[in-house]
Design a protein that fits this description.
The chain is of the alpha/beta class. It is built from 12 helices and 12 strands. The longest helix has 19 residues. The structure holds NADPH dihydro-nicotinamide-adenine-dinucleotide phosphate (NDP) and the ligand O=CC(=O)O.
Length: about 325
């Protein structure tokens, strides 16, 4: 029997490709980065499975892929799936939860520490030769904010949120507030966390971490009125998706001193535009969407995605089908 044809939109580790080749006829993008949209659409006529981490996977793409049965994303977030269009076409969508939780949580703690203790700003200061006698420097010029024993508010307390909570509460003795649509009693017990409304969380927290998925409900979730409620001494950390924030409102909050600083792994437009004012602010730590970017975790994600793909193509239920498309496999 012939193997199903799949297309892989970015370079994946050799061992993952070797596993896929046992089950599928694979073609992989061989350039740097990912193919252009037109380049991708031109590859899909015979393809039954797509391994990717970007999109959009929408009606236009599905129309160019008449044999497509599964799209396996090498990511936990799947806002690049048009789940309605996929459902209408019967195309299964899968993702890679759990395997990246600790790695992303490490990064969020790094952003909290780096922004509060001004690490990139002061690193630049030292390397520029500005740390010198006679410059009139005072102790206060180097002061930051303590992370330990501060109050952390997590908006979107899910898998990654819990991994952040563990580090913050057990490692840094932080007090924890969280806001979700629904309460998590076990989380409350484990981390002495208090569930609260969004407004109270914003008013009480020294660090506000946004960790929700990007959905129609969370689009521009953080707006001017929310930054206005935060403490002037507080830091805002976003590792969810850039579009969960009204970025202009964030820029203004930082420019006006409404909040003290920010740590951002994600932006409204990615790659971030070079003239984005956030890039000029010393009190903002910026990263190129690297939450899960370690070799080990990216390998685990790619292997999880490969198993999801192979299982779906073989007619077995993949381990991680996104919730909106589970009815296709049940
Ligand atoms: N920067 C990076 O590199 C990475 C970013 N991410 C992003 O992180 C997101 C979260 O991942 P993960 O923790 O695995 O997801 P989970 O689904 O486990 O957690 C998300 C939490 O958000 C809450 N939530 C969802 N909608 C809302 C809402 N409208 N208001 C308040 N809370 C809400 C959910 O609780 P409830 O349903 O009760 O509301 C849920 O507990 C991903 O979707 C992705 O976008 C993930 C990995 C890496
Ligand atoms: O942003 C990364 C993801 O896995 O989602």
């Amino acid at each position: 029997m012939s193997k199903p044809k799949i297309y892989i939109t970015k370079k994946i580790p050799d061992e993952v490709l070797a596993f896929l080749e046992q089950h599928c006829e694979c073609r992989m993008w061989d350039g740097r980065g990912t193919p252009s949209r037109e380049g991708l659409l031109g590859q899909l006529a015979e393809v039954e499975g797509l391994l990717t981490s970007s999109g959009p996977i929408d009606g236009e793409l599905l129309a160019r892929a008449p044999k497509l049965r599964v799209v396996s994303s090498i990511s936990v977030g799947y806002n690049h799936f048009d789940t309605e269009a996929m459902k209408a076409r019967g195309v299964i969508g899968t993702n890679t939860p759990y395997v990246l939780d600790d790695t992303v949580a490490d990064l969020v703690l790094s952003l909290m520490l780096a922004s509060a203790r001004r690490i990139p700003e002061l690193d630049h200061f030292v390397k520029q030769g500005m740390w010198k006698k006679g410059a009139g420097l005072t102790d206060e010029d180097f002061f930051g904010l303590d992370v330990h024993h501060a109050t952390l508010g997590i908006i979107g307390m899910g898998r990654i949120g819990e991994a952040i909570a563990k580090r913050a509460v057990h490692g840094f003795d932080m007090k924890l507030l969280y806001h979700n649509r629904s309460r998590r009693p076990e989380t409350e017990e484990r981390f002495h966390a208090r569930f609260c409304g969004l407004e109270e969380l914003l008013e009480q927290s020294d660090f506000v971490v946004l960790m929700t998925p990007l959905t129609p409900e969370t689009q521009r979730f953080m707006r001017k009125e929310h930054f206005d409620r935060m403490k002037r001494s507080a830091f805002f950390i976003n590792a969810s998706r850039g579009q969960t924030v009204d970025e202009q409102a964030l820029i203004e909050a930082l420019q006006n001193g409404t909040i003290r600083g920010a740590g951002l792994d994600v932006f409204d437009t990615e790659p971030v535009q070079p003239d984005n004012p956030l890039l000029q602010m010393p009190n903002v730590v910026t990263l190129p969407h690297i939450g899960s970017a370690t070799a080990k975790t990216r390998l685990d994600m790619a292997m999880t995605a490969a198993h999801n793909l192979v299982d779906a193509l073989a007619g077995r239920k993949p381990q991680y089908v996104v919730s909106e498309l589970r009815s296709l496999v049940e």
